[in-house]
Write a structure and sequence with these properties.
Distance between the termini: 67 Å
CATH architecture: 3-Layer(aba) Sandwich
GO molecular function: oxidoreductase activity
Organism: Artemisia annua
Keywords: Membrane, Oxidoreductase, Transmembrane, Transmembrane helix
Number of helices: 13
Helix content: 40-55%
InterPro entries: NAD(P)-bd_dom_sf, SDR_fam
Bound molecules: NADP nicotinamide-adenine-dinucleotide phosphate
Family: Belongs to the short-chain dehydrogenases/reductases (SDR) family.
Number of domains: 1
CATH topology: Rossmann fold
Largest sheet: 8 strands, mixed
Strand content: 5-15%
Number of strands: 8
Strand order of the largest sheet: 3-2-1-4-5-6-7-8
Structural class: alpha/beta
Amino acid sequence: MLKTLLYICVNIFGVIAFVWKFVIRCKLNMKGTMRYLAGIAGQSGYGSKSTADQVTQDCSSLHPNLTAIVTGATSGIGAETARVLAKRGVRVVIPARNLRKAAQVKENIQKEHPKAEIIVLEIDLSSFASIKKFCSEFLSLDIPLNILINNAGKFSQKLEFSEDKFEMTFATNYLGHFLLTELLLEKLIETARQTGVQGRIVNVSSVIHTWVKKDNFSFNSMLQPKHYNATRAYAQSKLANIMHTKELAKQMKAIDANVTINAVHPGIVKTGIIRDHKGIITDSMFFIASKLLKTTSQGASTTCYVALSSKTEGVTGKYFVDCNESRCSMLANDDSEAHKLWKQTRALVYKRLRVQLRP
Ligand SMILES: NC(=O)c1ccc[n+]([C@@H]2O[C@H](COP(=O)([O-])OP(=O)(O)OC[C@H]3O[C@@H](n4cnc5c(N)ncnc54)[C@H](OP(=O)(O)O)[C@@H]3O)[C@@H](O)[C@H]2O)c1
């Protein structure tokens, strides 16, 4: 009895300490917190409580026949993003490692919107070979590509390595999406050139990127960490997503390509991302923080807003939270670090795959 009581007390203390640490580290000020809790709209006219349906309601100016690829659409925020895009008439390609789950998502969307066009193709974002195969299958369909949403995410609790021998969280969240984007970029640029409709890339990141310090951001140790810390690895991968966004936005501007790229933090949503972290601590944390959580539809709103809204036309290299442009960490804004990361990643991909990448 005493032992159980002690166990519960230790856990409650742990949860309070974690939530407190989260609040402090994310630098949530009072005004920002109140704005978040009340769902007060920002400049865009939307806020934390806006849903993906609401932010895409005015799609009268939306170009017909858009095609989007949404990674990680077999569950959580990605499935909702795919549903809302399809509802707005966008043809949605779902790359998935679990084809059964993807078929179920497709069926659910088509039950609600019988005319929705959904294409399911296989991909494992932690494998370079699988990404390459997906891209050649997609490109052989010879359909346009207007929107790429890099949403899939992994938060590996223990140290695991991908098929290519890289740490699994970094491999899935960052390296996989980097390669996918590189292999599809020409298609996005070409579609935008032919149709006159701006191409858009959305990288789904997280506010947790602010936790990473410069000392903890070394490429080789992210690939093969000696001392693994799950939260740190996840935060590093999400920081890398923003740096990728910033660097690629500069490159697209330099070649005058009509393609924008932005990063988003979806908000905190109880989804499958914490499936490896089940237990009393995680459950109690979500219970205590339940007032701060978003619904899945609120979680998908920022992605859908950045991907479809006419208000984000021409906006590139930015970071969005609750459907409004927001500030990311100093490190995420460091152009030279972003360029260094891009060069290192590109060299690694080339060495491993020997694929022809952009100059
Ligand atoms: N939920 C939050 O509170 C939160 C907060 C900040 C940022 N985010 C970000 O939001 C994004 C969506 O996450 P979520 O919360 O919706 O999580 P989720 O429900 O776990 O969805 C993750 C998706 O990624 C897919 N995925 C994982 N590894 C993959 C791989 N190797 N190859 C292909 N697909 C893979 C999963 O596919 P399977 O179905 O096959 O597993 C699933 O569809 C992630 O980038 C996450 O980092 C989430």
